[in-house]
C-alpha cells in the first residue's frame, strides 16, 4: 500500500504531449500547476509525453518548451522524455505480470468498435496463438475514493470502466502505465491537470497500489471549452500562443483561474505579474468548476 505524500514537501509537474504547440488551454494547465508548486517553494518538473510517435507534431517539443520559457514558467532540472524511459516501463510491466495483474488481449479495434467498456473477452479465454497482443490490467471490484483538491470527493467503481490496456498491441506503453511509473520515479507529490483526465485517475491509483507506489495528491482543473463545449485542442484549431507578447495570455489565464487581476497588475512586467500571482494563488476559488468558456480564457 502506498503512503500519503509527506507534508511540506512538494514536487509538481507539467506533462504535455507534443502533438502541437501550447495554446491558451494548455497554458492555463501549465500556469496553475506552476503556481501551485511555486506558491509553496515547491519543485516543478516538465515531462514530455512523447510515446505516441504517430500523433507527434514535428517541432512541437521545442515549441512547447520555448512557450513555457517565454511565459516565465521556469522548471527544475532536465526535461524528462518518456521515450528515454522504456527500460523503467518494461520493469514495471514484468512486476505486474509476475503478480498476476495482466493478461494478453488479442481483440482488435474493429471488434471493440462501439463498446465504451472492454467486455473482458480475453480475461477468461486463452488468446489465439500468434495474434498481436495487448496487455490489459485486471481491475477488481473495488471502489476508489478520490479527494480532489478542486473537484471534491468523487467515488469511482473501476469495474464500470473495465480492464484497461497497459501495453498496446503495437508494443507501445500506454499513457496510464507511463504516467504512474514516471510520477513515482520523479518523486512527484502533487498532480494538477485538466478535468478531462479525471477518469484516468482511478486507473492510475489502481496501478500505483498494484506496484506498491506512493499515493499522490490530485487537483483537476476546469478545462477551457469552445462555443460547442469542446475542450480546446489542436484538433479544433486552438490558436498557438504568441511567443513575442506573452503577458496578455498570462493575464487572461490568471483571470480564468479566478485570480482578482486588476489594471495595475495587468500593466506590470511578466515577472511582477507571476510574483503577484504566486502570492494570490488559491485553487479553492475554482471549487467544483468543470469548464471555462473560451471567451473568458482568451484575449
Ligand atoms: N500528457 C497528458 C496530456 O497532455 C497529460 C498527462 C497528465 O498530466 O497526467 O493530456
Ligand atoms: Zn481481448
Descriptive key words:
299 residues; alpha/beta; three-stranded parallel sheet; three-stranded antiparallel sheet; 10 helices; 17% strand; binds glutamic acid; binds zinc ion
Give your account of this protein's structure.
The protein is α/β, with parallel strands linked by helices and 299 residues long. Helix content is 32%, strand content 17%. The chain is built from ten helices and twelve strands. The chain has helices at 24-38, 60-70, 86-98, 121-124, 175-185, 201-211, 246-256, 263-266, 270-280, 294-297, and strands at residues 11-14, 43-48, 80-81, 102-105, 134-137, 143-148, 152-157, 164-167, 190-194, 217-221, 223-225, 291-293. The strands form five sheets. A three-stranded parallel β-sheet has the order 1-2-3, covered by helices on one side. A three-stranded antiparallel β-sheet has the order 4-5-8. Helix 1 (24-38) crosses helix 7 and helix 7 (246-256) runs parallel beside helix 9 (270-280). The model has no long low-confidence stretch (mean pLDDT 92). The structure holds glutamic acid (GLU) and zinc ion.
Quick overview of this protein structure:
By secondary structure, the chain is an alpha/beta fold. The protein has helices at 24-38, 60-70, 86-98, 121-124, 175-185, 201-211, 246-256, 263-266, 270-280, 294-297; strands at 11-14, 43-48, 80-81, 102-105, 134-137, 143-148, 152-157, 164-167, 190-194, 217-221, 223-225, 291-293. Helix 1 (24-38) crosses helix 7, helix 5 crosses helix 6 (201-211) and helix 7 packs parallel to helix 9.
Amino acid at each position: 500500500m502506498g503512503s500519503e505524500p509527506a507534508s511540506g514537501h512538494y514536487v509538481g509537474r507539467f506533462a504535455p504531449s507534443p502533438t502541437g504547440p501550447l495554446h491558451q488551454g494548455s497554458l492555463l494547465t501549465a500556469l496553475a500547476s506552476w503556481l501551485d508548486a511555486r506558491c509553496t517553494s515547491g519543485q516543478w518538473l516538465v515531462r514530455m509525453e512523447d510515446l505516441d510517435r504517430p500523433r507527434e507534431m514535428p517541432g512541437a517539443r521545442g515549441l512547447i518548451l520555448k512557450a513555457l520559457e517565454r511565459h516565465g514558467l521556469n522548471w527544475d532540472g532536465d526535461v524528462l522524455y518518456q521515450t528515454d524511459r522504456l527500460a523503467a516501463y518494461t520493469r514495471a510491466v514484468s512486476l505486474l505480470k509476475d503478480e498476476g495483474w495482466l493478461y494478453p488481449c488479442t481483440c482488435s479495434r474493429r471488434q471493440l468498435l462501439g463498446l465504451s467498456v472492454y467486455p473482458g473477452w480475453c480475461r477468461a479465454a486463452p488468446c489465439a496463438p500468434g495474434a498481436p497482443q495487448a496487455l490489459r490490467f485486471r481491475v477488481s471490484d473495488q471502489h476508489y475514493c478520490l479527494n480532489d483538491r478542486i473537484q471534491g470527493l468523487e467515488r469511482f467503481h473501476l469495474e464500470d470502466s473495465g480492464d484497461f490496456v497497459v501495453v498496446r498491441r503495437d508494443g507501445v506503453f500506454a499513457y496510464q502505465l507511463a504516467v504512474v511509473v514516471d510520477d513515482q520515479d520523479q518523486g512527484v507529490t502533487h498532480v494538477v491537470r485538466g478535468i478531462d483526465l479525471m477518469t484516468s485517475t482511478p486507473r492510475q491509483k489502481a496501478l500505483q497500489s498494484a506496484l506498491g507506489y506512493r499515493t499522490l495528491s490530485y487537483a483537476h482543473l476546469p478545462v477551457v471549452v469552445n462555443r460547442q463545449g469542446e475542450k480546446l485542442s489542436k484538433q479544433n484549431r486552438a490558436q498557438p500562443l504568441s511567443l513575442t507578447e506573452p503577458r496578455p495570455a498570462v493575464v487572461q489565464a490568471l483571470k480564468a483561474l479566478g485570480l482578482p487581476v486588476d489594471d495595475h497588475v495587468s500593466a506590470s512586467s511578466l515577472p511582477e505579474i507571476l510574483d503577484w500571482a504566486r502570492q494570490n494563488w488559491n485553487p479553492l476559488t475554482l471549487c467544483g468548476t468543470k469548464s471555462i468558456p473560451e471567451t473568458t480564457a482568451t484575449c
